[in-house]
Predict the structure.
Amino acid sequence: AFGEFVKVMVFGGLDGIITTFAVVASIAGADLKIEVVLVLGFSNLLGDGVSMAFGEYISADAEQKFVSMERDREAWELQNDPEGEVKEMVDLYVKKGFDRADAETVINTMSKYDKFFVDHMMTEEL
């Protein structure tokens, strides 16, 4: 949560600094009055801030909807084809280097707990 906030702030800050510098430098290079340079620089900074905030909001909303849909799909698959989901996870564990017998033991144990198993499938499959 906080780490994601820091990531967004750093990315947005770097983007804002670079574009604002480019705007201010080009306007200053046109030999306009300092007042014009400052107004256009702050306008660009404000526009970038609104744009980045809106973009982040839309992106986070889309990601949340995607994860929710995938979770619903995984829960439906577990309810309607539990053997298939267990087999899928066993195969995944075997691919990661588990012996089949060990993978079956681990996955069969986890699959007894639906919510946990759906969470685990989300982590492993997405």
The CA atoms of residues 78 and 85 lie 6 Å apart. The helical segments are 2-29, 34-80, 82-95, 100-110, 114-125. The chain is about 90% helix and 0% strand.
